[in-house]
Amino acid sequence: MINKNIPHFVIFDKFQKGGRYQDLLTHHILSDVALKCVGIADYTIEFVNKVNKGRLACLYYDEETHYISFSEKIVQARNSFFQSFPSALLQYCNDDSENKYLAYYILQPVGGSIVTDYHHFMYRLIKSVGTIFLNEEDMLNKPVIKFISYEDLILSKENIRKKNRSNKSTYVTKSDVGSLQIFSKVYGASKYESTLISLALYHISILPIVIYEIEEQGLIKLPEIARNYLLSLKRINIITSDIKQEEREYKENNSLRSPRYISNLLNKLGPKKCSLCDCDIPEIIQGAHIWPVSEIKKSQILSNTEKLNEAINGDNGIWLCQNHHKLFDSNLLILSNDKGLYYNNSLLEGGIDYLKDVTNIMVLPDEFYTDKFISYLEMRNLNIDQNNFSRFSIV
Ligand SMILES: [Zn+2]
Questions:
Q1: Are residues 210 and 239 in contact, defined by beta-carbon separation less than 8 angstroms?
Q2: At 278, which helix (H) or strand (E)?
């Protein structure tokens, strides 16, 4: 019998990972949660044996519903540590009741650290969607501060990317028309991170958001429950990457608007910033091809699929502002595989002075020059006579 005067827990999920829920959610923990949520340490409890509810308990008391997501107990792969929370978040979001609260409770971990930079990034996302942390002071080494803006989130994500370059992830940027773009992983544990990033951005920004689902391992879409909820929000649009459609468009036009290309550049280069002048106004930063798409198309030996793959390769591009992109594509500026930047001798002195004024990076970072990048540069410069160019002197 449910006693309405006592907080009542309904615990979903089998909590099978890392032990039975009876062992994980001890009396001590549950009374701590009840005390922190509603100020009463006493409670009644029932279990509902359902999976994929997000390590979730609901606490009902005095017309209030508290959704509590519990952290993983066993710390293994870092991104699977957070895969339950977005499920709990979506349960909460889809509840129409008025007095609802969302909380996160951190269990004492076994087997690894839960205070890495990556964990803090994820805690900040969790807090940014309005979650109350019930025991962060006890469990974490520093307070969790929600993101204050999309720039804050992008910068924080960049610090994670720098430390783990091989990890292709979900990236956020701002488009040339001022909307936020999310290049979303749809595979594995990362798809939960994508959902959380999307909802966090929705909370901290008033800008329109476009989510690009990036096809991976045959999966093309986010989980249906996440998708349906995201699409119910007025400012969010979702575009599914369609490789066949991209191939068709590429065959018919010389231009290429592939979300996969932008996603690959964000993975290799980080947030949008001109490689030659450091301008970081995202609306005027573009992905500039090294081996141009129109030249790739002329290849006699590559199939259409291979051509597209060269065109969207993250090594086949750098970020350039519109000014430098135009100068680069007009061959008034060229990059050489000796890592130097050269200007066209046909320019008048005033033009050269202007270029020197607006170009404060004369040598690109070493990490740009992968074997693949150098091979694209060779293809680009195949018909260029370097005698017609002079190297910018490094001041
Ligand atoms: Zn520039």
A1: yes
A2: none
In the reported structure, the alpha carbon of residue 320 is separated from the centroid of ligand 1 by a whole-number distance in angstroms of 5
What residues have CB less than 8 Å from 137, skipping those under 6 apart?
143
Q: What is the mean pLDDT of residues 330-352?
A: 93
Residue 59 CB-density burial (10 A; 0-12 exposed, 13-18 middle, 19+ buried)? buried
- Alpha carbon of 360 to ligand 1 centroid (Å): 9
Residue 391 is classified by DSSP as E
Centre of ligand 1 from the C-alpha of residue 348, in Å: 20
pLDDT in the model for residue 41? 95
The whole-model pTM stands at 0.91
- On whether the CB atoms of residues 241 and 303 are closer than 8 A, the answer is no
pLDDT at 14: 63
* Dihedral sign for Cα atoms in the order 341, 268, 165, 90: positive
* pLDDT for position 29: 94
Task: Give the whole-angstrom CA distance, residue 110 versus residue 349.
Answer: 67
Distance 286 CA to ligand 1 centre (A): 10
Rounded distance from Cα 325 to ligand 1 centre (Å) = 7
Q: Calculate ∠ Cα 220-222-228, nearest 5°.
A: 125
Classify domain 8-145 at the CATH topology level: Rossmann fold (3.40.50)
Structure tokens at 22: 């009876």
Residue ranges per domain, the chain? 8-145, 147-241, 254-395
Contacts of 370 (CB under 8 A, 6+ apart): 315
**Does residue 379 have a pLDDT over 60?**
yes
* Predicted local confidence at residue 254, as pLDDT: 66
Q: Would you say residue 394 has pLDDT above 70? A: no
Sequence-distant (6+) residues with CB within 8 A of 283 are 174, 175, 176, 177, 178
Q: What is the mean pLDDT of residues 93-115?
A: 92
CA of 383 to the centre of ligand 1 (A): 25
CA 26 – ligand 1 centroid, Å: 58
pLDDT of residue 216: 80
